Amino acid sequence: MPQSDLTIVCTAPPPDAIRAAFAAYDLRVHTHRETYIAALVRWHAALILVDGGRDDWREWVTAPRSNPATRRIAVLVYSQTPDTMNESARLAGAERVLTVADLAGNAESLLREYGRFVPPEVVAQMQAECADDLPELAQQGVAQFNAGEYYAQHDLFEALWVQTETPVRDLYRAILQVGVAYYQIQRGNGRGAKKMLLRSQQWLAILPDVCQGVDVGSLKADAARVYDALAGLPDDDISGFDLSLLRPVLMIDGD
Fold it and tell me: How do the domains of the chain map onto residue ranges?
């Protein structure tokens, strides 16, 4: 059974039957398209439910598919006439089109089949690996990151990510992507920085608050603050960005 803390995002207020079917989970409604992708990432959405009866249903389906940070999140559409819109919805990127009754009646099995969540055995392996010391290559990467050498840290963490095949590789990928976002800020590329910060959040969200001595909780909060600051600036002019927000990766002594 999927974890009860999974977040299900509805792009319109759902019918009572759907609310009741997903009552054991974190069901949230988000109706603002301009902040849609950021909300999906920040909430680490496990599943998206779209009302196929709305005129703008297609935009809510296609938007997550166009962003690397959200393209893995499954989209289910509910409609009174699923047969007539099944093909168009699938072309837009939806996994299934169902009636409200079918969606509500099969909520748990659909979530198990389509929901994005980390299997318990992977969580256990991640926790075990997070208790290990940070590898030497990662220590070098953190040193480069904290010196503001964000391009150099990328090469170190990428090499470690490539050679690591176990779940802890997401730690290295997360730090790498935050660093690349900070590098884009140095270059004045606000749009590129925001895209990379969104991508990093999907990996930070599944990590423990401390992993191999890295204060992941602080890194996650720092990256979120940077994103929020960038969101208030035009993409083509981020000269007003406060560079003091680019904080170092903190380490926690386990002794």
Answer: 7-117, 122-245
Given phi > 0 = left and psi -120 to 50 = alpha, else beta, which region is 195? alpha
Tell me which of 1.10.3450.10, 3.90.1490.10, 3.40.630.30, 2.30.42.10 is the CATH number of domain 122-245: 1.10.3450.10
Instruction: Using pLDDT thresholds of 50, 70 and 90, give the confidence band for residue 161.
Output: very high
Strands 75-78 and 45-51: parallel
Distance CA 217, CA 199 (A): 16
Secondary structure (3-state) at 210: strand
Task: Report the distance separating Cα 217 and Cα 214, nearest Å.
Answer: 9
Residue 114 in tokens: 């389509």
What number does CATH give the domain 7-117?
Answer: 3.40.50.2300
Tens-digit pLDDT profile for residues 84-139:
999 999 999 999 999 999 999 999 999 999 998 888 898 899 999 999 999 999 99
In terms of residues, how long is the chain?
255
Whose tokens are 């503001």? That residue is 148
Could you give the C-alpha distances from 175 to 122, 143, 202, 252, in angstroms and in order? 20, 12, 12, 15
